[in-house]
């Protein structure tokens, strides 16, 4: 039972992380690298 | 300053940060809304069930000022004269009342009131649209006449002159509908699921010849209630109770108290988890606006102003979330009410929820709670914002400088220790207050330990991944340490949700296991015979005692025993069940799971010495143990009986006292059974015997369950009871997942430039996806570890505080008492 919940929690986290991950993958490449 | 200026300022400082990342704001609003909705739906459903009970009791009570009753066995009708002659009594109305299954109807149970129709109008309000109601004598002259409520009749498509078949204890019985009551007065009880019979007809049809269930009394205007009640108690035998009708309301509230408190506490978890979401969103917002806040401070804005601006932003989130949540809660409440009533009907007492009442104050209070929790959760980020010095010109990550994981870890450890200390203290007035406090302290401790755990986890990952080629995973591990606080809060939210899920499930699972062991040990007969309507708590499901010899005579039946359960009142107005069965047969073929001693020996000794056995719940409730005495009041007498053994039983709320059938017959002379257990001969075929028993009984309304069916049914009821608990937990986990979403979305946004550089350095889109997902997975794994540990600790605390079974709700089953 506990194993099931562990899987559930990681699954839910991954699911929740997929939107930010998709967002990150759509971000444009940096055209110039500027050091500050 | 022109009037438009503050508005513009508010728009710039409050509205703009919210719209800059609409997805995150919406998710936060959704989190708050879900929390408010669940809490409100449970609250409305809980109130709805209580109101349904109260309304039904009030409508049936009418003008009644005092009620005389003796629990389920009822009492001799000759006592009516004593009540009528008592000084101060203006009118007294005898009642026979039963909860009766309707044959073949979709709404399967009716409350049937057998009343003296001529005298009863002094107590209850009967109004009928049909001319027959103006001639109540029709009820007196026709023993098959019945009056239904207009609402029920319309729902079932029955008109005046139509027939309705009720499954009475002596078999199905057809009645002719002689009148309909309009939706007023007594007709409103049980949402219209009520029928009226003449009392004499009710006594015949329900096997209560010469018996009454209740006498309702209206007093003379000059009489005081208490002295008359005391006088009646003196005049009547000891088993009789004299109470105000309101006492039954209080009894229902007491009975449902723990069940409803548990549901409500569980419903608050989603709101609690939502608070973490708000905290994270606001913390990110403050970090983003540090520069702006610094500029505002140099332009003369004081700390209070900054505090108001930040609280304004979270207030707006809270307000929209609360309004949305209130609307959603009202929508959810109807279904929740149905689910809660179903559980209450199968566990405690039959209830028909009426139309859902949605009091504005309850909705406003829930919305205010949502707003309050949101504001409280954003207080820390708001105070952080006030500490930004004028002219601050720094970008993100500054709050991390102030971070002191060791301090929070020390306070966290202290909280965990406090939890252990509190768990050992007992309940106050039957409510596990210290248990809840300990659970809260443990959760708080877990939350405070999260930052340190996150740091340790990140270090562990860094050292084990050093030199690894898994770039995406290394990137993810590196990011975990960048914003420890934000990630710690995300982990904490999920850990709390998970801890609750694990602890509640562990307790339910361990309870289920106990029930399974108990089923295995005690359900030993091959077939169980009961009335079909038995599944509703309190329904009249008696079987005539003459059925037993007929069942015994069936070929293939080795032996059979009848069980009778009578709900009796105790001296404090509470109720318990008195059961009876053949102890000799139980000793030989059955078994009870005793706390100490051997089942066979105890049962035989109890039979020989005229002693009783009691359930563990009964012993705990009345502070009794093996060898003590139980005081019982059979009709007209008081007897003291020794407790031969205490056994485990999960069927009966309030506890059970069981005695040998011979003794029970001697004391109560009751000619009924609730169920019959059948043991088959070794070579008998279960299906054949089942058909033969059905034929021998000559009745259609019987339920014949095999041993396996019964076990299955008990566990089914058990699971149904706890289904709503899992739903509440799942919602809390969803809110926690929204937290992961917002935290990672913020982290990705903050790293826009870094991600752009990584992309130009050749990291693929897939690589970025893997990296963010790895970060999400790491947060999930850490939350898992902490949540499961805290969850197991929580279960231990709750079990130590002995709230596990007493307040988690008892299971009901079809077993022996049914």
Task: Break the fold down into its secondary structure elements and pairings.
The complex is a heterodimer of chains A (about 35) and B (about 800).
Chain A: H1 2-25
Chain B: H1 4-20, H2 22-61, E1 66-69, E2 75-76, H3 79-85, E3 89-101, E4 109-115, H4 117-120, H5 137-141, E5 145-149, H6 150-156, E6 163-168, E7 171-181, E8 194-198, H7 199-205, E9 211-212, E10 214-219, H8 225-235, E11 241-243, H9 246-288, H10 290-298, H11 303-347, H12 360-377, H13 379-386, H14 405-423, H15 433-465, H16 471-480, H17 484-522, E12 527-531, E13 543-544, H18 547-552, E14 557-569, E15 575-581, H19 583-589, H20 599-609, E16 612-615, H21 616-622, E17 629-632, E18 639-647, E19 656-660, H22 661-668, E20 672-673, E21 675-680, H23 686-697, E22 702-706, H24 707-750, H25 752-760, H26 765-800
Parallel strand pairs in B: 4-8, 5-7, 15-19, 16-18
Antiparallel strand pairs in B: 1-10, 1-11, 2-9, 3-4, 3-10, 5-8, 6-7, 12-21, 12-22, 13-20, 14-15, 14-21, 16-19, 17-18
Helix pairs in contact in B: 1-11, 2-9, 2-11, 2-12, 2-24, 9-11, 9-12, 9-13, 9-17, 9-24, 11-12, 11-13, 11-24, 14-15, 15-16, 15-17, 15-26, 16-26, 17-24, 17-26, 19-20
